[in-house]
Specification:
The chain is α+β, with helices and mostly antiparallel strands. About 40% of the residues lie in helices and about 20% in strands. Strands 1, 5, 7, 8, 10, 11 and 13 form a seven-stranded antiparallel β-sheet that branches. Strands 2, 3, 4, 6, 9 and 12 form a six-stranded antiparallel β-sheet that branches. Helix 1 runs antiparallel to helix 2. The longest helix is centred in the middle third of the chain and has 55 residues. It is rod-shaped.
């Protein structure tokens, strides 16, 4: 899988998970407001009741004098939807005590070191102190106190009557607002009726209606964008596959045309029949052994097919001469490199082919022809084809030279490393020989 496809695939997965998270959050996350806050749908306020006798003191044996105070919490439903399953979450900011909460249950979480004491929801009205799991102070003749240290939490759950856990929707035509006021008795050291010892938050829920949730629209838009992205990726993949098929078809056509053209080239020299195709296959094997890309391996195959195409422009009297070539004739034969370049210079789809045709007789030490290039100045495809060309010549023989033995070919390759041939290319072909992937005639 290509990097671009991996990126789009990862983007699809991540975006889908993000959308699911947003939608689930919009559905299952209940809104909340702090005491004294008001939203478009609800309001919440906790305050001292302030009536005569609502505050008093209590003396405990080994503790500072505690002040008991009655506090009220007013919850209002301002929306046109039924509010359901509301609750009040308290968190102690200083050490204090809870003594009472009417018409509702209290769930208490006391943190004591690494241990958390969880008191299931209890109703103080009908409470038997002996059934309390929480830490408590139960002195005969004194109020029952449940200590809340800094960081402890308790949750109030309304249960009965006008303090029901369900508020009906407000009636806009009459201006009526559905609300409830519940009371609590806290004890604290401070005699002032402040609320700095406790924080309170109303958590509420409405009858499920996704259209009332802003995050639903966000999730819907993200989902729509995700669908568009998926369709785009599908279209991209389809276009990519079509392009691959077209490219494969074009390559196949080019290969067939080149194979026919190569037979004309080899037909010019009766001593090297099939030479170009063998060089092409060996060059591709070498490139693959060197770890080259698939595209490079395909291109060098075509370079191998066409490396001797310039011989078409060489007179048959020279190519098929029975005797030794004169110096002038040999110079003409060498022109097959430049003639090949001229023939292929307009082959823009495989520009490496013309460079290979021109330079496949260069030597790594700079003593080759036609331009006496050396080292890495010789195009890489030409350096690979040069080794494949020499190997096939030694393996099949020429007009005046018999083919060499396997050991002789290996010896020649090793001897000419760094002079005629690039060492890395020789190492690659030797590896192929040792693995039996290149066969001998």
């Amino acid at each position: 899988m290509k990097e671009r496809e991996k990126f789009f695939f990862s983007l699809i997965i991540v975006s889908f998970l993000a959308i699911i998270a947003v939608i689930l959050s919009s559905v299952f996350t209940d809104p909340s407001i702090k005491s004294g806050e008001k939203s478009q749908k609800a309001s919440f306020l906790i305050y001292p009741r302030g009536q005569k006798g609502d505050s008093w003191t209590l003396n405990l044996l080994d503790k500072p004098t505690q002040t008991g105070t009655i506090y009220l919490a007013k919850v209002s439903n301002l929306s046109r939807k039924n509010m359901t399953n509301w609750k009040i979450v308290f968190k102690a900011k200083k050490n204090c005590y809870i003594n009472y909460a009417w018409t509702g249950d209290l769930e208490i979480f006391q943190h004591r070191g690494i241990k958390t004491i969880h008191q299931q929801a209890i109703n103080f009205k009908d409470l038997n102190p002996a059934n309390l799991v929480s830490e408590k102070i139960a002195i005969p003749g004194k109020p029952l106190l449940v200590p809340l240290n800094k960081g402890d939490r308790m949750v109030y759950h309304p249960t009965t009557g006008t303090y029901s856990e369900n508020f009906l929707a407000s009636t806009s035509s009459t201006g009526d607002i559905s609300s409830s006021t519940v009371g609590f008795i806290f004890y604290k050291e401070s005699k002032y009726d402040d609320l700095d010892f406790i924080s309170a938050r109303l958590v509420y829920h409405f009858d499920l209606n996704l259209l009332d949730k802003p995050m639903f629209y966000v999730g819907f838009m993200l989902l729509l964008m995700w669908i568009i992205l998926v369709l785009f990726v599908i279209k991209l993949r389809a276009a990519s596959e079509l392009q691959k098929k077209k490219k494969a078809h074009d390559r196949n056509t080019i290969e067939q045309v080149m194979a026919v053209f190569t037979k004309f080239i080899d037909a010019k020299d009766i001593y090297t029949g099939g030479h170009s195709e063998r060089v092409a296959n060996i060059s591709r094997l070498i490139a693959k052994e060197m770890g080259k890309s698939e595209e490079f391996c395909e291109n060098i195959f075509f370079c191998g097919l066409l490396h001797d195409c310039g011989k078409i422009a060489i007179n048959d009297s020279i190519l098929k001469k029975d005797g030794n070539l004169s110096e002038a004739e040999f110079q003409i034969l060498q022109e097959h490199t430049t003639r090949g370049y001229d023939l292929l210079k307009n082959l823009s789809s495989i520009p490496e082919a013309r460079e290979t045709a021109l330079h496949h007789h260069e030597r790594y030490d700079g003593t080759g022809y036609p331009d006496h290039l050396c080292g890495n100045f010789i195009p890489e495809t030409a350096r690979i084809v040069a080794v494949a060309d020499a190997f096939d010549s030694m393996n099949t023989g020429k007009k005046y030279k018999s083919r060499l033995t396997v050991d002789s070919i290996i010896s020649e390759l090793k001897t000419n490393m760094g002079t005629q041939f690039e060492p890395a290319v020789v190492k690659a072909i030797l590896s192929l020989i040792y693995k039996g992937e290149i066969t001998f005639i």
